[in-house]
Each structure stands twice: as C-alpha cells, then as structure tokens.
Amino acid sequence: MRNAPTILHLDMDAFYASVEQASKPSLRGKAVVVGGLGPRGVVATASYEARVFGVHSAMPMAQARRLAPNAAYLVPRFSLYRAVSDQVMALLRELSPLVEPLSLDEAFVDLAAGGTAWDAESARQTGLRLREDIRAATGLAGSVGLAASKMLAKIASEEAKPDGLVLIEPGTERALLGPMPVRTLPGVGPATGDHLRRAGITTVEELAEAGEAELVRLLGKAHGQALYAMALARDERPVVAEREAKSVSVEDTYDVDIHDRPRIGFEVRRLADRCVRRLREAGLSGRTIVLKVRRYDFSTLTRSETLRGPTDDPEVVREAAGRLLDSVDTTGGVRLLGVGVSGLADYTQEDLFAQAAKPSREESPEEPVAESAAAPEPAAPHWRAGQDVRHDEFGHGWVQGSGVGRVTVRFETPQSGPGRVRTFLVTDPALRPADPLPLVPVPAGQPGSGLL
Ligand SMILES: [Mg+2]
C-alpha cells in the first residue's frame, strides 16, 4: 500500500436532490425526494431535509410518503444529472488520468498518478481546491475522502458528509477502523452483518481479532479472506480508468450460420441473460451494453449503447441488446453473437435506480396507457411532478403537480428567487415541455451554453 493519502474519493452530496434544489429555488432547505413516482417506485435520492424524517434511498416511495407527507416528490431528470456529472468528471480528469467513476456522482482519482499530490499536505490542498472548483462550476457540494487506499478513501468521504473533507493519515487506519461497525466495510450487507453479529462480532476490531481462519469458517474462503484483509485495512486495489475497466461479456459461435431473424433475436436475449448472470455473480453493474455480431463472411461488427445509469437488470440489458440488433444487417447469416456490459461499477445507490435508466421509462408516462381500439382523441398531455415546462406568457417553470384535468406550475429558474404558482388546464396550448436550464449561468460567448 502506498505511504501517502493520494487516493481521492469524491461523492456529491444527495446528488439528484441537490440538483433539484439548485434548479428550483422554492425547494432549497426543504425536504425533496427524487425517484419513481409510479406504484412500484423507489426513492433514488432524498435531500438531507427529507432524511431527517427517516427517508432514504431504495425505500419504497409509498413508505417515504407516509414518513414525509409534505416533502416534494419529483421524477428524476437524468439529462440534467448527466450534464452536471460530466462537468464534475471533467474537473477530476484535470487532476489525473486515472479517474474511476462509480456512478454519476462518485469517483476515485489517483492523485499520485497525476502528479497533483505526493504527500498529505499536497493531497489536502488538492482536495480543498477540487471542492471549490466543483462549487464554482455546478453550485453543488461534494464531499472528499483522501487515504492511501480505495477502501479508506471511500470511508473517509462518507465521514466527510455533508460538504466536507476527511483525510486519513497512513498509519492511523486500523485505529480509526477498529471501533467502526462491520457494516462500514465494503461488501458487508445486512445478511453478513447479522451472521457476524450472531457470532459476537460487531466491530471491525472484533473482525481482526477473530482471525482469518475463524472468518473463513463463518463466511467461506473468498469472503472470509477478503473481509479479514479489509479489517486490517489492507487494500491494494488500483484506481482503474473507466476505459480500461474490464467488461463482462459472453458469446456463442454457431456450427451453422443462423439466418432466421427471430432466432437471432432469441439468441441475443439468451446471451443478455447469461451476461447479466455473470455481472451479478461479480457484484457489478454496468452502463454500456455492447452487441457483437460476426457475419457469414467473417466481418465483425460491434454496436454499443450507453444507459443513463449502471444496470444489472436482465430486462434492461435484453432491450438494449435488441435495439442494437435492430441496427445490424444480418442478411447472409451470422456465425457468432456476443453481448457484453462495460462501464462497470460496484453497487451504488444509483443502480437501484437502473430501472429508470431505461429510455422507455423516462420518456413515457408511468401509468400504463389503456389500450383502446377506438381512441378518437389524442391523449391529454401527461405532466409529471418536477418536469421542466415553458409557458408562452409566464416563461420557464416546473410541474408541481397535476390531477383532475389541471396542472400546477411553479415559475422559477436556478437564478430567480422562489417563484409563483399558477394552475392551468392540462390541455393548455400555451404550456409545453421544456429542457432543463443550466444550474450556473454560462458566460456569454462561451461554448457550453448548449450543454443540455
Ligand atoms: Mg452521492
């Protein structure tokens, strides 16, 4: 392990909810919950004000509404989150070529590899400057952890939240970790935590004292050995830039070329399922779906599609692979098919939200539209809480709610004060969906005004 705290872990604070508060001045300082608003929706992110009521990510939305009935419940706006994420990741890449994003709002950076830090003091200065730069570029707060390993850097950023920086001096790791609950360590979920508690182990120090043999007996070889190493603060995993990150893929070569299009589609779905099984076994999720097709004449094509967030949902991967297949000419037959997932991430809160990463989910109404043979009129517009709108007379705003043929809009922008609320008929022709506005005004004449 290196002897200077030059691995940085950045984690934006309550990212989706903070973006919403920055966008919507009337929600600043208020409880905000972002997630799926349909019957099976879950919380993606809750603002700190909402967490006070016990709302947290992955909680069913219905439960959140019982705990915090007065919070603002909003659909996610991934295009905006991605644009802000791109700004943040660009700042990280100025620090080092080795940036490993874990999700839209979280990444490891190897500062030593970038020559931006070599000891505790230079690492701290770099971390402080990064937090200022992120605030200037996005208006948002990110917490920074600095340590000599990825595991400790991530624990440090958790300790730093909200809006802080924690640096763990090399040599102090074990003393710091010792009293922490076992659940602090990566890979220790509720089930492992319960199992260890029944064996009388609740803290990291107790894990270390139990010894490797005992942990292997309790948890099996791989998990036991890994956990023992972590309890001793041993973590040698390098920061891996995304483009080098391994992918998980499966492929099949066929004895006889396949010509039949439905059969090709069937094989691609089967490969997608197998790929997802491999992904899940490795405890990973990924953002880029890759389809590989080798045709009868040995020409090989690859097509890829990047989702808005990491997924390990077989349905999402199947659908993406199917869309990619649609763009490939398979006349003449195929001799090999492959499906892969890259842009891998460890499990993070965002992948609970992988469902919402499906383009079809984000763009379509959440309630199923009743299919009717005789649909005489076009369906009324479907306004979703949180979405951007523009009114011919009142300008930019967002949907606060809708029902019984009415939609309530609050007219405000990231740079305005809290705005006024007005109510319209859902069919009002002066009201239209709009694109999100940038959180920080782009100086005139500078590229980037087309950011979103
Ligand atoms: Mg975060």
TrEMBL record:
Subcellular localization, as worded in the UniProt entry: Cytoplasm
Record keywords: Cytoplasm, DNA damage, DNA repair, DNA replication, DNA-binding, DNA-directed DNA polymerase, Magnesium, Metal-binding, Mutator protein, Nucleotidyltransferase, Transferase
Superkingdom assignment:
Bacteria
**Which family is it part of?**
Belongs to the DNA polymerase type-Y family.
Main enzyme class? transferase
Q: Which Gene3D superfamilies match?
A: 3.30.70.270, 3.40.1170.60, 5' to 3' exonuclease, C-terminal subdomain (1.10.150.20), DNA polymerase, Y-family, little finger domain (3.30.1490.100)
Q: How does it assemble?
A: Monomer.
Enzyme Commission identifier(s): 2.7.7.7
Reaction(s) catalyzed by this protein?
Answer: DNA(n) + a 2'-deoxyribonucleoside 5'-triphosphate = DNA(n+1) + diphosphate
Return the Pfam families for the record: IMS, IMS_C, IMS_HHH_1
Q: Which cofactor does it need?
A: Mg(2+)
**Cofactor binding description:** Binds 2 magnesium ions per subunit.
Function field: Poorly processive, error-prone DNA polymerase involved in untargeted mutagenesis. Copies undamaged DNA at stalled replication forks, which arise in vivo from mismatched or misaligned primer ends. These misaligned primers can be extended by PolIV. Exhibits no 3'-5' exonuclease (proofreading) activity. May be involved in translesional synthesis, in conjunction with the beta clamp from PolIII.
Q: What is this protein called?
A: DNA polymerase IV
Domain (UmuC) spans 7-189
Q: Which GO terms describe its biological process?
A: DNA repair; DNA-templated DNA replication; error-prone translesion synthesis; SOS response
**Recorded GO terms, molecular function?**
damaged DNA binding; DNA-directed DNA polymerase activity; magnesium ion binding
Q: An example Gene Ontology cellular component term from the record?
A: cytosol
List residues binding Mg(2+). Answer: 11, 105
Q: Where is the active site?
A: 106
Q: Which parts of the sequence are marked as the site Substrate discrimination?
A: 16
